[in-house]
Amino acid sequence: MPHELSIALCLVLVLEGLMLFAAPRHWQSMVRQALELSPRTLRVFGAVAVIAGLAVLQLMR
Description:
The chain is mostly helical. The chain has helices spanning about 5-20, 25-35, 40-60.
């Protein structure tokens, strides 16, 4: 695994951990709301997040 990828994965873990640490009830609320969404809607949100992330990475290069 390239060094940059390792750093990126660590940063994702830190950010996710901060969310759980700082606002656990808000996180639980978001999960409850996500359970009400259809799998198709979640898939669309996931695809948009991937595309946005890749676009930002491309802009940063």
